[in-house]
Structure formats: structure tokens, C-alpha cells
Amino acid sequence: MSEADRPRHEALIIISRVSVRPGRREEFRALIPQLCRAAEDEPGTLVFSFQHERENPDDYWLVEMYRNAEAHVLHRRNSVDPVRAQLEDLFVTWPHRRYCVPIAAKGFGPPVT
Of 1, 14, 27, 47, which one's alpha carbon is 20 to 30 angstroms from that of 106? Predict the structure, then answer.
């Protein structure tokens, strides 16, 4: 597919895993509502969901879905950048991310193009 034939706006799903430093879990959990509230004001942020592992409550998974890559950039500027220093201090390492393109799903709706 040539660049001209490629869809200009493609939905983007990001699945991230992050480990919080031992003893810092409550500090991280206190930031989650702030991040979620900021995402509520972003029309291009379709899904923004935190989960922690049952077996290891210091390991979190974040599932994000954006209308397109531009919406993701906007989200980073609005939601993540204001608390980036706090997050970096709480994480063992910066999140391990997987960038995905939706194919089919229940609950996410059809891929947005």
C-alpha cells in the first residue's frame, strides 16, 4: 500500500505495563483519578483504563484507545506531561508499551478510520 493509499486517521490502541517502586503504590494510585479526569476532556481518547495484576499489585496495565495518533499526542500533552516527573519517580522503569491497530473487538466498536 502506498503512502497515498494509507488511511490518514487510524484508531490506535496502546497496552502498557508498568511496575511501581516498592512502597509507592498508594502514591501512584492517587494520581490515577487525575489522569482519568484529564482524559475525560479529550474527545479523541476513547478508552483509558488502569488495572493491576492480582498476583502482583505493584504491576499495572493500562489500556488506551485513541481515535488516531494525533489524539494520542494531545493526550500526552494534556494528561501525562503535567505529572511526568511524578510518574517517573514512582516507576521502576518507564512503561513497556505495545502499539496496536484494532482488528475486531467486542466493546470497543469498529475500528475508527
Answer: 1
Hey, how many other C-beta atoms are within 10 angstroms of the C-beta on 66? 24
What is the length of the chain?
Answer: 113
pLDDT of residue 109: 57
54 CB-side CA count, 13 A: 0
- Residue range of the domain that includes 35: 12-100
Decide: pTM greater than 0.85: no
CB neighbourhood size of 70 (10 A): 13
Rounded CA Rg of the chain: 15
Q: Are 84 and 68 contacting, i.e. CB atoms less than 8 angstroms apart?
A: no
Phi-psi region of 108 (alpha: psi -120 to 50; beta: other; left: phi over 0): alpha
